[in-house]
Amino acid sequence: MLLNKTIAVVVPAYNEELQIGMVIESMPEFVDRIIIVNDCSTDRTNEVVKNYIENDNENYNNSKKIGSKQILKSKYNEAEIVLQENSTKEMKYYISSEIINQSPENDRIILIKNLVNGGVGASIARGYKWAKDNNIDCTAVMAGDGQMDPAELKSICDPVINENIDYVKGNRLMHKSAKYVIPKKRFIGNSVLSIMTKIASGYWRISDTQTGYTAISLSALKLIDIHKIYRSYGMPNDMLVKLNIASCSMREIEIKPIYRIGEQSKMRIGKVIPRITALLIRCFFRRLWFKYFIRDFHPLFLLYHLSFFLMLINIPFIIDIIDKVLTPHSLIVNNHLVISVFLFISSFQSFFFAMWMDIQDNDRLYK
Predict the structure, then answer these.
(1) Does pLDDT of 194 surpass 90?
(2) Could you state, in order of their start, the residue ranges of all structural domains in the chain?
(3) pTM summary value
């Protein structure tokens, strides 16, 4: 516990029998619950964690007992009761899973086994669900492959506990060693996706959007639809959009980039980047419609859409001009050229004005 606040760490794991023990053993003492979500591993990950649970129960019997709080029915708290009932019903939207522990309310290590492979995002969502249902004050996420330094966990959780920040994420790109330690392809890919995620999420001051070393408050978990979190490697990007729509505060903490410690990446950059790009485009428009039209209208909604509309109607003129340039002895119609230039300039002006408004509106969320 930190300042009498409960701390849990969600550890998504897939075929991590060689690394998961190191993650468990190095977990700081202030962590009340280690929620390991085994994503249908084909190796001995499940058996390794079960052995740790048995040994941990013999040596660690002072963990704070936790559980969901029942709300007594009265004429004044119908809204709270409805939310609690919905929280129970929404389990059907999560990936099929089972809790292995005999007494999870008392155990420090919680093992949740997914019955089908759902992806890293689905595993984190399932861990978040357990933490939310058991009213954990601060829930962090650490990878099961040992790529995150447990010594940095306190600095990740502190802003949530001490300053009521909704979401804290690590940033490896801030570290001076980043360009030397992070593989070049991953460094470039991460940087490109970070720029795209800034636009899609509205958190314009963030970078290293692909890191999974994060901490979230209980109140923030209750604000978002956890079961709708993207199930694959685009989960961190989708999570940022959901948090922004809910107007959650954000902070970044410098962390060390850790590689070559025995981990084996299961991410294929050539496949992941196109998928995340498509996800970010969808997330961008979802954020505009939910946050700046349905929930609270803002002029940037019109400016963004005006810029895209002008780009679309300019496409036929651009195609015609290119066709004339490539066709010998063809003359470019001056009217088409003037109209195309006008639409192009107007489109970019609208886009950059909308972007400026977007930055100004969301700057208050970055603490």
Answers:
(1) yes
(2) 7-294, 298-365
(3) 0.89
